[in-house]
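REQUEST ID: PR-0412
SUBMITTED BY: lab tech R.K.
PRIORITY: routine
TASK: structure prediction, single protein chain
INPUT:
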Amino acid sequence: MTVDLVVRNCRVVTHTSSSPDTGIAVDDGRIVAVGRPANLPESERTLDADGNVVVPGIVDCHIHNREPGLEYKEDWESATRAAAAGGVTTVVGMPNTDPVIDRPQHLALKFRRGERRAHVDFQSFAVVTSENLERISALDEAGALGFKIFLGSTVGDVPAPTDGEILEAMAEIRETGKRLGFHEENGEIIDHYEAKFRAEGRTDPIDHSHSRPVIAEREAIERMITFAEETGTKIHMYHVSSGSGAEAVGRGKARGVDVTAETCPHYLWFTEEVMREKGNVARIQPPIRDEREQARLWDALEAGSIDTIATDHAPHTDDEKLVDAPFGNTWDAMSGFVGLETEVPAMLTFVAKGKLTLEEWVYHHSTRPAQVWGMYPQKGSLQVGTDADFTVVDPDYEWTLEDRHTLHSKSTATPFEGETFTGKATATVVRGEVVYENGEVVGEPGFGTRVDVD
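STATUS: complete
OUTPUT:
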């Protein structure tokens, strides 16, 4: 028997095991064998991992690829090119585009664009607003991975439903069997403090952070957990920024609510001092927190309150980020920055520092996101018969992101410029095809395909 691809000369790490001197055989885009190299079949192509680590492909379930409508910032091609270069094999796009993904035809448009231009596999969330409660079932049937509600103001100004509408939506979504995620900031709290700070002439980047206090996040989490406890809906908290918020998730889990949560590398890496050091380049919603909240966030990750890692990859142009005047009026700056090419290095750096093991990293960054969003074991595993998605990493490679313009996104503003990492993706394989290798994206636009979910 001859197969399409064999990966050799590597250590294979999953969320439960680490196996040195192991290889993987692939045929027709699926894994057909995992074992000792001598026992693997002949292949048309061999990928020499050069003694590095091979893990299930990284799954990022929170990116803003900006297509349709905002392609001047980013599009499916550039976002997934960055994903491939960063070792990410599956991405999930957010619905605050133009038009917003609030009806089946808009979702179909997003999918069509992805099929034409994506380098890696993809999916999309659909938004729930006051205007589309009757379309939830149709969006489910159209193939949305899950649903999202914006509880507070954010990029795109997608209005939050009322609490009554949220309860109604939860009941509808429960019947689909899919999960409902939240941008969990109490809109009344953050709107109040922004208006207050603007009136007082407070315009520094740190003022934006303080206008969105931890209580806004924690209250929203606790309220949505209470609603889910009532309705029986599966829920998710995106981009949890604070230990206080994560602890609220843990309390919900302890009560038996099916609530999951993600955090992002920037919340684990930076404290709010980055706003005084790098200004509006680091402006994001919810904001990066102080040292105490970050320490509690790490504790919550270790305790299991945080399930997944994602980036909230959110490209904006240099002008929108005030890159040339990073300490200018913060209310004139956009929130968000790119992250697809720094998430794996950041997490591997935490591994190198002993903050978590390789197996724990794989769990939070590949296996668990696929499980939470119904893509497992097709994604996030190395089981025979599943998609042959691999991320090859050198966990010891030390390097510094000296020039953000080397990143593959259209927009490259990031507070990670100038940061030093230990670890990097060296190759990315999607369904058996090498899409990134030797520092180059070698896959073709349009190879990526939509992940089917029940």
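NOTES: The CA atoms of residues 10 and 51 lie 5 Å apart.
REVIEWED BY: pending
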